[in-house]
From TrEMBL:
Keywords: Glycosyltransferase, Membrane, Transferase, Transmembrane, Transmembrane helix. GO terms for molecular function: glycosyltransferase activity. This is Alpha-(1->6)-mannopyranosyltransferase. It is a multi-pass membrane protein. The chain crosses the membrane at residues 54-74, 94-116, 224-246, 258-276, 282-300, 321-349, 369-393, 405-425, 431-453, 460-480, 500-518, 525-545. Its main location: membrane. Belongs to the MptA/B family. It comes from the Bacteria. InterPro entries: MptA/B-like (IPR049829).
């Protein structure tokens, strides 16, 4: 009996330790990702001149990409506005030259972003002596966004799937039952622009997005260019929400708003894939972050970074706080009605609320019940009011048909299957994926639960815990597209400041942005190599010409190993 009791105690102790219930705050491994940033003076005259050159460098790259997109972007099969045009049509006929121009523009934008980081975060392992102002960063970001926002879609054809699925809904057909071929017909102009792999698959998006898309379809009809423009406006609205919410969340975490916006909003993945690629992830992320900010405003008040280990002196949870909480929860739920993944944010808001209410198990159930009612009512309203119902529940896994090289379980399964082929054991990739993907799902679920517990016990800020959880979900997802990395990078930009996060985040953002080819034309290997060599030569010449006028190397007054000063806080 004593042996059984001892085993039970050890099992319970192990379980509590695994969930983080008995882990002392200083020993929490994820907490090392964060440290408060300090307020520092603005740029001096020399640095302002360098900033102007960096701004021009990025704008030039964005313009080159926009021009190249006329020939090698994700142009529509039908209604291509530059097809047959004498001057503009030359880019479509000179694929190698257009690809070289696009590559060179891409390198310029990425290089400008990295150089801008010297005035936002300093070095990856230090802090800046001088930091650019919020208005300076906003103007730079706007200047880089404008050329890509008027260019043809790039890097993805997904917007054409949006148009087709929205038209299906506009015709009164269930887009969660019928794909573009069945719903519109194989000869329909919208169907012909959808990539072949998605022509027979139903829509994997939430009812809010298709409800909005149905309105766009009724407005633009079969006019592909007008439909793309309106969808891009929707993506830009999502980016605007990110720019609104991210600095407010960062100040709550003791992080400089400019640092968060540099990594989370000026990121090349945002510019190239959310703006240039017209992805609905922009709307999802924008709504999610805005909802999190509203709910945290209700939980912690308008004060800055909350003291997570002591909730004394918090403002009373009055009618205004409940209004903000309900409004924020509704906005997060609307985000999940674009892409369901963002519903996870509601769990972290709930655990923060439970901690605000005392951190007891009763408080957890009370917060969970309240948010569940709000989320359920919002989802029911959107599903019924849109007339789209709940078919989206059964199409969430549609994208798993793709084998993504950025997904850890998928890569492990493919490599192992290929090893079996080399050993003469046959191709068992599909069977291996049926093993690796469920294991990855269990691991991701464990990380999410661990982060929820850390939030509920006050060890981690909910924004940081949410970012870490989304990072685990993304990396262990069956399918990972380049822009999916933003699900984790954007919220973590407001909290994680240490090199252990920023170095890989910056590296992944730069490398992935550079490797993805503009989609809209098929290229031969010799074209890709020739274009890459031409872009490399152009950039080498550019570097030689600007090595003394741009801050390619760390220099005095730009970055330093450490800074002492007042940490960022909200004061009103």
């Amino acid at each position: 009996m004593a042996v059984l009791e001892g085993a039970t105690r050890k099992t319970l102790a192990f379980g509590r330790r695994a969930l983080g219930l008995d882990v002392p705050a200083p020993d929490h491994t994820v907490a090392v990702l964060h440290r408060d940033e300090s307020e520092v003076p603005g740029l001096d005259k020399r640095e302002r001149a360098q900033l102007d050159r960096i701004r021009l460098m990025g704008a030039t790259g964005a313009v080159l990409m926009a021009i190249a997109a006329l020939g090698i972007g994700a142009q529509p099969v039908h209604q291509n506005p530059v097809s047959g045009v004498r001057v503009l049509g030359i880019f479509a006929r000179a694929h190698t030259g257009s690809l070289a121009m696009c590559m060179f523009g891409t390198v310029l934008v990425i290089g400008a972003w990295l150089l801008l980081g010297r005035f936002a975060i300093g070095g990856l392992a230090g802090s800046p002596l001088h930091r650019l102002s919020r208005s300076q960063l906003d103007r730079t970001l706007l200047l880089w966004i404008v050329p890509l926002s008027v260019a043809p879609p790039m890097f993805s054809n997904d917007v054409y799937s949006y148009l087709a699925q929205s038209e299906i809904a506009a015709r009164g057909i269930d887009p969660y039952e019928e794909g573009p071929v069945a719903g519109l017909g194989i000869d329909n102009v919208l169907t012909n622009n959808v990539p072949t792999i998605w022509r027979d698959t139903p829509a994997p998006y939430g009812p809010l997005f298709l409800w909005i898309g149905r309105g766009i379809a009724e407005l633009t009809g079969d006019n592909i260019i007008a439909g793309v423009w309106v969808h891009r406006l929707l993506a830009l609205a999502g980016v605007a929400l990110i720019v609104w919410a991210l600095p407010r969340l960062s100040v709550r975490c003791g992080v400089a708003p400019v640092s968060a916006l540099w990594l989370g909003a000026a990121n090349p993945l945002v510019l190239f894939h959310l703006v240039g690629g017209v992805h609905n992830d922009a709307l999802m992320l924008g709504l999610m972050l805005a909802g999190v900010e509203l709910t945290l405003r209700a939980i912690y008040g308008n004060g800055g970074k909350p003291d997570l280990l002591s909730m004394r002196d918090r403002p009373p949870f009055d009618a205004r706080a409940y209004a903000l909480l309900i409004g924020g929860a509704v906005v997060i739920t609307l985000s999940s009605s674009v892409k369901f993944t963002s519903i996870i944010a509601l769990g972290f808001v709930g655990m923060a609320l439970a901690w605000r209410w005392g951190g007891t198990l009763k408080a957890v159930f009370k917060a969970a019940a309240l948010l569940a009612v709000i989320a359920g009512a919002t989802t029911l309203f959107v599903s019924y009011a849109s007339g789209l119902g709940f078919g989206w529940i059964f199409t969430l896994n549609t994208a798993s048909a793709v084998r993504s090289w950025m997904s850890l379980p998928t890569v492990i399964g493919i490599i192992t299957g290929f090893g079996g082929v080399l050993l003469g054991l046959g191709d068992h990739t599909t069977a291996l994926l049926s093993i690796t993907r469920p294991i990855a799902a269990v691991v991701a679920a464990y990380v999410v639960v661990r982060m929820l517990v850390a939030t509920g016990t006050g060890r981690l800020h909910p924004v940081g815990a949410l970012g870490v959880a989304l990072g685990a979900v993304v990396l262990l997802f069956p399918v990972v597209q380049p822009w999916y990395l933003l699900w984790a990078i954007v919220p973590l930009a407001a909290w994680a400041t240490q090199p252990v996060f920023r170095v890989p985040a910056v590296a992944f953002s730069a490398v992935v942005s550079l490797l993805v080819m503009p989609r809209g034309a098929e290229f031969q290997v010799f074209q890709i190599i020739g274009a890459a060599l031409a872009a490399a030569v152009c950039f080498a010449l550019f570097f030689a010409l600007t090595r003394h006028t741009l801050p390619w190397r760390a220099q005095a007054g730009v970055s330093a190993p450490s800074q002492e000063g007042t940490a960022y806080r909200v004061t009103s």
